[in-house]
Specification:
The structure holds two protein chains of two kinds. By secondary structure, chain A is an alpha+beta fold. In chain A, 29% of the residues lie in helices and 17% in strands. Chain A folds into two domains: 2-243, Alpha-Beta Plaits; 254-291, no CATH class. In chain A, strands 9-2-11-10 form a four-stranded mixed sheet. Chain A has a three-stranded antiparallel sheet with strand order 1-5-6, with no helix packed on it. A two-stranded antiparallel ribbon of chain A has the order 3-4. Chain B is 68% helix and 2% strand. Chain B has helices at 7-31, 45-70, 78-85, 87-91, 106-128, 140-170, 175-179, 185-191, 193-200; strands at 2-3, 182-183. Classes of the chains: A alpha+beta, B mainly alpha. Chains A and B meet through α3, α7, α8 and α9 of A and α1, α2, α6 and α8 of B.
Chain lengths: 292, 202
Amino acid sequence: MASLQSLDIKARSGQTTPAPGVRDTAQVAKLIDESKCIGCKACQVACMNWNDLRDAVGENVGVYDNPQDLSPSTWTLMRFFEVEQEPNRLEWLIRKDGCMHCEDPGCLKACPSPGAIVKYSNGIVDFVSENCIGCGYCVTGCPFDVPRISKTDNKAYKCTLCSDRVSVGLEPACVKTCPTGAISFGTKEDMVVYGEKRSAELKERGFQNAGLYNPAGVGGTHVMYVLKHADKPELENLPKDPQVSPMVSLWKGVTKPFASALMGLAVLGGFIHYVTVGPKEVEEDEKKREEA
Amino acid sequence: MIQRYTSRERASHWLVALFFFLAALSGLVLFHPSFFFFSQLFGGGPWTRILHPFLGVVMFLFFCGMALRYWDDNAITDNDRRWLQRLSDVIANRERNMPEVGKYNAGQKMLFWTLVVCMLLLLLTGVVMWRPYFAGGFPIWLNRVAVVVHALAAFVLIMGIIVHIYAAIWTKGSIRAMTRGTVSDAWAKHHHPGWYRQVSGK
């Protein structure tokens, strides 16, 4: 029986009691070393292939980004940035975009539908699309602008970190296919160590600000980058200090249970008032006054 | 018996009430998991998400008609301020020598303006977060502000309506004003003496 159910769910959207989580698996992470990336887009192809997704054929708008944005059927995307930090020193930065699998996922926090978003104990944040109601709250909650809602079925989609492959001991499809070894996969601990080692190597080679992108504002991520300019992640459209928006925390934090309790108390208060202070009955008052 | 609400006013009130309940129940589904079971009333999660904004817009439209009709009757006066200072006496049913009340007392007027503000906020923020039609057309920061304001306005509105419903149950003889259209002379004289003088000429 247990073999067909997930016993490793750490958090589940729209639920106020713990989900089955007795099975504690090792935390995993994907590390993307942008210094080794050649922008070949094999990861995009592998992602399409494994997940059996085909985006519509787009149009060339004069840049290498193809398709131009993440979509319900494009879960990972090479983004190309032409950066000139010093005059006449053009740098071509390439970032493989997709879900960051936050340790503290804003999408899950915002989602109102029970079980539409789950976080497994290995750190993977997965959309269970059959439970998705299409409200788009995950889009509001995501600090990385990742979830995309399909125009045809109104369900939200994004990278699963190949949770199906990982659960049977395989690495994600993009990792498997990367020809330069720019993408690695392993335990989160190992990936942090490896990412820091790579950053140190890059520093030796002149990239003084190289570093690991594992932002603390969302509790760290299960997809990390080795960036050549870790001091300026904005160069590649990455937020410097991503956080779940305070608006979303306010909206989904203590406010809602508190407000729900107040509404219940208001009804209860009315009932208690009625049976203690009692109703305002005019007819009797008037009659009494007339009699008096 | 004195006529307090015409048949048209009564129909309009109950249409707003009906759509308020539908919008509130479907909205609570998206508010907190403890209310998610209400989605069963609307045909499941996706149907609740689809219907909620339409129910809200219909509520808003019916409310507009009502708000315009009662707008002038709800202007706050000095008497109302004095009445509010004695709110605790009102709650305790100690109503000797209250400042004279017209068609509506200060509590009813406050509710009216609360509803006006909440309805407007709900409509504006609702459009900003309406998927799949409009939400994508607004910047994400505005979506984020909208969801908070929408939830807050809905909370205030629901609290207001809880008070409104209770006040109707509490003040005997009020409900028939909205179901039959009439109130007793004694009711009018006692609760709304200013209005009673005006309509009865006494």
